[in-house]
User: Fold Putative proteasome-type protease from Camelimonas lactis.
Amino acid sequence: MTYCVGLLVQSGVVMIADTRTNAGIDNVSTFRKLHLFGTKGERAIAIACAGNLSISQSVIAMVSEGLVNPETGETERIEDMPSMFRAAQLVGFAVRQMRKQLGEALEDAGLPFDVAFLLAGQVAGREMRMYMIYAAGNFIECGRDSPFLQIGEHKYGKPILDRSVQWETTLNDAIKLGLLSMDSTLRSNLGVGLPLDIAVIPRDALAITISRRIENGDPYFRNLSERWSSALRAAHMDIPPPPWGVDG
Amino acid sequence: MTYCVGLLVQSGVVMIADTRTNAGIDNVSTFRKLHLFGTKGERAIAIACAGNLSISQSVIAMVSEGLVNPETGETERIEDMPSMFRAAQLVGFAVRQMRKQLGEALEDAGLPFDVAFLLAGQVAGREMRMYMIYAAGNFIECGRDSPFLQIGEHKYGKPILDRSVQWETTLNDAIKLGLLSMDSTLRSNLGVGLPLDIAVIPRDALAITISRRIENGDPYFRNLSERWSSALRAAHMDIPPPPWGVDG
Assistant:
C-alpha cells in the first residue's frame, strides 16, 4: 500500500508520501515515492506515486530522461515543460506508453495496470497547480473547494482533511494537517509506514524550500501524534453524554 | 453503501447502523439495517447488515421465521438459540442457504454475493458476545484487544475507534465514539446517510434498553458533530508548527 497527500492552498503546496511498498504481505520494503524536479527561480515540481512500483518508477524515469513527442519528434523532459498542465500531459503520455509496453503482459500475469500520481508545483510566470493522474494517463486538477488530493490508501486520512483544510489554510497548518492525515492512516493500515517524505513549495518561490524525511522516532512527528491523540480523547470526553443515554 | 459499527465493552454493547441504500448512484433509499430480537430477561440480540439488501433482508427473515436444521429436522429460530455462538451459526447457515439459492443467478447477472452482518447480544446465563459474519457464513468474534467491529464503509470512521475505544470505555462513551465514527463517515461518503439507528444492550440487562432513531437535524447528534469539529480545529491549531516549517 501507499498513502500520498497533496495540499494546494493559497500560500503554496505541501506534498507528503509514505515509503512502504509490499509485494505480497510478507515482502515489505522502503522506497522513495516522492520525486522532486526543478531549478531554483525557474520551476519547482513534486510528484508522488502510488500503485505498481515498477510502473511508477519507469514513468518517473521517462519524464526525467525525456520522451519523444510523436507529433514534433522532439524529446520532452518534465524540466522543459512550459506549464504544469503540459507537465501533467507529459506524465499522462508516459503512463500510456508504459501501458502499451506492459499492460498486456501484466494482464497475462493476472496483475492490474495500477498506478496513480500527484503532480504539483509552479513554472515561472504561471499559476501554481496540482493534478491527480490516473492509470489511463487522464488527470484532474485540484480546485479551491477541496484544496487537497490523495492517492493510495486515502480513506483513513480523509475525515481530518474534509473538516479542516481550506484554501486560506496557512502552509504550516497544511503541513500539520497533512501529517495528521498521515498519522491516522499509519495507525489504521500497517501497509502505510514511516519514514515519510515531505516537500513544501511556497507560492511564487519557484523552489522546494522544504524537502525532508521524517524517520521513525522523529521528535516533532511523535509529539504531533501524541498531542493529537490526547486532544481527541479530551474532545470526546468533553462532549456531554446523550440525554437519552445510559444512567450513571 | 452502508456503515455499521458495533462496540462490545465491559459494560455492554452499542450497535449503530445508517439507513442509506442505493441501487446505482441515482436510486437512493432509506431502509432499516438494524434488527432487534429478544424477550426481556431471556435474551437481547441486535443484528446489523451490509451488502446486497435482498440477501440481507432474506437472511433476517429466515433466522426470524426459522430454518430447518438438516441434522435434526427441527426448525430453528434466532430467538430459540441457547447461546450467541449458536445464533451466529444460524445466521451463517442462513447465509449459505441464500448463496445456494441465489449465488449462481447473481453471478450470471454479474453481481457479487456480497453481504456481511454484525451480531451482538446476550442470552440468559451466558456471556455477552459480538460476531462479524461474512458472505460465506463464516464468522469471527470480537475480542478485548480491539473491542469493536465494523461492516460496510469502515475506513473513514476507523481512526477515531482505533485511538479511543477500549474494553474499559463506558457505555455512554461507547455511544459517543460510535456516533463520532458515524459522523466522520457521513461527511466523507455520501453513500452513508442519516437517519441512524442505534441500539444499546447493557451487560446482564438481557434487554435492549435503548433503541432509537437519530433523524436529520437531531439536536444531540448535531451538537456532537459541531463540538467535535471545533475541538478538532482547536486541537490542530494548538499543535506547534514544525521547527523546520515555513517562516512567519
